[in-house]
């Protein structure tokens, strides 16, 4: 496999997660895909500045995040997907959460300040460590931790999520069953 | 800065689950063709199968 081919594979593998991050950031699929495209083109044009052996995915996330931030500063509030058009484009099979819960969660997520939202997504969904997220966002690890905490606290507040009360017995059972299945499968 | 109330593990788990549900919904869609096309340029010319699909 040629080096370029290898880079292509690694980049391709990062695209689904990159899209998910972009959609969570800007709340609109079409705009998110444009952002991903721009990030990939910029990455290709600057491949020489990528340090081999470092995390390609984190590098791409950094590029996309910086593009989003510079664009966001320009466009400010029109970024929000007021009609929830991207929610409609998704078919969702509710396994863990109900459709309603998901829509409410999406709305709540949108209401977070951008820096809290990106920190929460990077750590809570993209699977980056606090250290990696800090590098991607160009801030201190402590800052990321505090943003993630504030994001969680705010979401819990908006969605009135509390310990036990919002955890119905069937959900709890399901969680136990699921983890049990996972344990057995592995 | 306003201090943040300590959140219980159940609250964190619930938020984490919904966050991942939303995220996975997109991840499951894979790689749209337009991005495959963009990255095709990285292949050796000899590898090019020449199958140009319209980007979505």
Which labels suit this protein?
A: 186 residues; mainly alpha; Rna Polymerase Sigma Factor, Chain: A; Arc Repressor Mutant, subunit A; B: mainly alpha; 48% helix; rod-shaped
Describe it:
- The complex is a heterodimer of chains A (about 190) and B (about 55).
- Chain A is mainly α and about 190 residues long.
- Chain A has 2 domains: about 1-90, RNA polymerase sigma factor, region 2, helix turn helix motif (Rna Polymerase Sigma Factor, Chain: A, Orthogonal Bundle); about 90-170, Arc Repressor Mutant, subunit A.
- Chain A has helices at about 5-25, 30-45, 55-75, 85-90, 100-110, 115-125, 130-135, 140-160, 170-185.
- In chain A, helix 6 packs antiparallel against helix 7 (about 130-135) and helix 7 (about 130-135) packs across helix 8.
- The model of chain B is unreliable at about 45-55 (pLDDT under 50).
- Chain B has a domain at about 10-40.
- The longest helix of chain B is centred in the first third of the chain and has 19 residues, at about 10-25.
- Chain B is mainly alpha-helical and about 55 residues long.
- Chain B contains 2 helices and no strands.
- Chain B starts with 8 loop residues before the first helix and ends in a 16-residue tail after the last helix.
- Chains A and B meet through helix 1, helix 2, helix 5, helix 6 and helix 8 of A and helix 1 and helix 2 of B.
Number of strands of chain A: 0
Q: How does the major sheet of chain A shape up?
A: none
Helix tally of chain A? 9
Instruction: Determine the CATH topology of the largest domain in chain A.
Output: Rna Polymerase Sigma Factor, Chain: A
Main sheet specs of chain B: none
Helix content of chain B: 40-55%
Shape of chain B: rod-shaped
Stretches of chain B where pLDDT is under 50 for at least 5 consecutive residues are: 47-56
**Gyration radius of chain A, to the nearest Å?**
18 Å
Spatial shape of chain A: globular
Q: Helix- and strand-based class of chain B? A: mainly alpha
Q: How do the SSEs of chain B run, as a string of H and E?
A: HH
Number of domains of chain A: 2
């Amino acid at each position: 496999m040629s080096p370029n081919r290898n880079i292509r594979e690694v980049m391709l593998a990062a695209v689904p997660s990159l899209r998910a991050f972009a959609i969570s950031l800007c709340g609109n699929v079409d705009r998110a895909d444009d952002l991903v495209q721009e990030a990939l083109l910029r990455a290709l044009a600057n491949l020489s500045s990528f340090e081999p052996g470092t995390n390609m995915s984190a590098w791409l996330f950094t590029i996309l995040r910086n593009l989003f931030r510079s664009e966001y500063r320009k466009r400010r509030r029109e970024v929000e997907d007021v009609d929830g058009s991207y929610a409609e484009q998704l078919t969702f099979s509710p396994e863990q959460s109900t459709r309603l819960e998901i829509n409410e969660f999406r709305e709540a997520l949108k209401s977070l300040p951008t820096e809290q939202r990106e920190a929460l997504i990077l750590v809570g969904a993209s699977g980056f460590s606090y250290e990696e997220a800090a590098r991607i966002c160009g801030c201190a690890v402590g800052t990321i931790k505090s943003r993630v905490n504030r994001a969680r606290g705010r979401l819990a507040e908006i969605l009135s999520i509390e310990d036990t009360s919002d955890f119905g017995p069937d959900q709890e059972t399901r969680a136990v069953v699921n983890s049990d299945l996972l344990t057995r499968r592995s | 800065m306003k201090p943040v109330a300590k959140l219980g593990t159940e609250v964190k788990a619930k938020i984490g689950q919904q966050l991942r549900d939303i995220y996975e919904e997109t991840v499951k869609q894979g790689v749209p063709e337009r991005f495959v096309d963009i990255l095709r340029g990285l292949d050796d010319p000899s590898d090019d199968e020449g199958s140009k699909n319209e980007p979505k």
